[in-house]
Write a structure and sequence with these properties.
This protein is α/β, with parallel strands linked by helices. The protein has helices at 44-61, 75-87, 100-112, 209-217, 251-267, 270-289, 315-318, 323-339, 366-390, and strands at 68-73, 93-97, 118-122, 139-143, 145-146, 151-152, 167-170, 187-191, 202-207, 231-232, 235-236, 294-296, 308-313, 356-359.
């Protein structure tokens, strides 16, 4: 096959978006026939269904029994904001930022909450900040997996077990696909639109006993919107963690999440989910090693994501190109692959360096990833020629 000859095989599922992510294998709308639509989420049956989603989350994610799990509004963003507004201000804060979402949390802490004692530990896309510099006498805010950079923390070993402050972890593209170190995490958030391929707009917040203690012993100096309130009269609102949601959830989306969790349990639970993501990422990384025009944006193999795998043009590929030409090639590749129906939504995040981002999470089939890779070579050859000929 020549460089510009289209590959024979195509992915059966071309959905490689990093959020909302592709549905579970075999998904179809009949799976939602049991959804409690047209019923109140506060009915006995509604609360039971929400509680079932919470219980399945605990089982599949292997969350400790003394941690609270709640379904909250506004996706992972709402869950993180709830934690920041409800818990911060009691002590100094370290915020880790190495991609767009971490930088967004830093902006909220500094400019919106206006906390005076804040350190922002930053790194460029593709790298991590120096984790040894984190001060755990302070509260620490970080993403476990940088969705827009493809860089994750290697593990939880860098987090102090005897910390005085709380750890607030945005784990939205890590939960279910990476090993979360629960004893090191006080607040963990995610949305089920990521690794579980659920529908958007709902978030999950998981609180350790230390986080609950902070909530019941500390009142922040700023007013809290209703959708952020986790306590009443100085006590945790326990109903939130039994399925009594703060605002009205979509029971159709809840049912979709439940079906994804039941699928996860059927295939072997957390280990099986992690293995699927790792196989997908391994297929991409093996191809990268044998391809001269592309590199992994994440420089250190130990911190490379197995879900949001971010790619950039290699030094060899950009040699002799202007910045505009180098940026145009990935954009043209994305357009070509979409027209072919081979890959949807794989462009780099708008604030990230130009490149590609391939979702390799647990709902993706490895054979689809493998079928995609020759198409990337084809799209690169075609896009490069087009960009150079138009300059």
């Amino acid at each position: 096959m020549t460089a510009k000859e289209k590959p024979a095989a195509r992915p059966a599922n071309p959905r490689f978006s990093s959020g909302p992510c592709t549905k579970i294998p075999g998904w179809n709308t009949s799976l939602l026939d049991s959804a409690l639509v047209g019923r109140s989420h506060r009915s006995k049956e509604g609360k039971a269904r929400l509680k079932y989603a919470i219980d399945l989350t605990r089982e599949v994610l292997e969350v400790p029994e003394d941690y609270r799990i709640g379904i909250v509004p506004a996706s992972d963003t709402g869950a993180v904001e709830m934690a920041l507004w409800s818990l911060l201000g009691a002590r100094g804060v370290d915020v880790l930022a190495w991609e767009s979402f971490g930088k967004g949390w830093a902006t909220d802490v500094v400019k919106q909450l206006k906390i005076k004692d804040v350190r922002v530990l930053e790194a460029d896309y593709g790298e991590l900040p120096d984790l040894s510099q984190v001060d755990f006498s302070r509260d620490v805010v970080f993403t476990w997996n940088g969705t827009t950079s493809g860089v994750k923390v290697p593990d939880g070993e860098w987090i102090a077990a005897d910390r005085e402050g709380l750890t607030i972890c945005d784990a939205t593209s890590a939960a279910f696909a990476q090993e979360l170190d629960w004893p090191k995490l006080d607040v963990t958030t995610f949305s089920w639109q990521k690794v579980m391929g659920g529908e958007a707009q709902h978030g999950v917040i998981i609180l350790s006993p230390r986080a609950v203690e902070r909530l019941e012993s500390y009142t922040p100096p700023w007013p809290l919107p209703k959708i952020f309130r986790l306590t009443k009269n100085g006590k945790l609102i326990e109903g939130i963690f039994r399925g009594e949601t703060i605002n009205t959830p979509s029971m159709l989306c809840v049912e979709d999440y439940i079906k994804a969790l039941e699928w996860a349990r059927e295939i072997g639970g957390l280990c099986a989910l992690q293995a699927r993501a790792c196989m997908n990422a391994a297929a991409v990384n093996e191809w990268i090693e044998n391809t001269d025009w592309v590199e992994n944006l994440a420089r250190d193999p130990e911190t490379r994501s197995n879900t949001s795998v971010c790619l950039k043009l290699s030094e060899k590929a950009v040699e002799g190109l202007s910045e505009e030409q180098a940026a145009a090639i990935p954009k043209r590749m994305v357009a070509l692959l979409e027209v072919e129906g081979v890959a949807y939504d794989i462009g780099a995040y708008r604030a990230a360096p130009p490149g590609l981002r391939i979702w390799c999470g647990s709902t993706v089939e490895t054979e689809d990833v493998q079928a995609l890779l020759p198409w990337l070579d084809w799209a690169y050859a075609v896009a490069r020629e087009e960009v150079l000929s138009s300059s």
